[in-house]
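With this grant's support, the team has encoded backbone shapes as discrete tokens. A representative record is reproduced below.
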Amino acid sequence: EPADLVALAQQVQQADDFIRANACNKLTVIAEQIRYLQEQARKVLDEANRDADLHRVACNLVKKPGNIYYMYRRESGQRYFSILSPQEWGTSPHEFLGAYKLQHDLSWTPFEHIERRDAEINILDKLLSRQAALPPCTEPNFQGLTK
């Protein structure tokens, strides 16, 4: 019957529309994830460039991870690290540029982010120590996800 053919054609069209909309929604999510990953990659590269630059700053002492270093600029334009803060200098003979903590992975954390970064590291250390205490699991475990 013609009415059945029309209904069948409408059903096929609806299925096509639904599949197209569903695929579009999924692609939108993937595009958002790609943008997020691109931004993360940009941050990683910016931090790597900053860290490499800071490792090239003049320093007359052995830098030790966990310590804070204060960067100054001489009148000649040369940048250098010191262990003395501007407060400890009193009146510094050179322009203060910033303070950085040398992390154990040899990355640098700007002074204003040290507290947050230390908190993140503490959380990760706790997670790693808990993870080490867990028994080995040889099979997939979805416990807690199905309830």
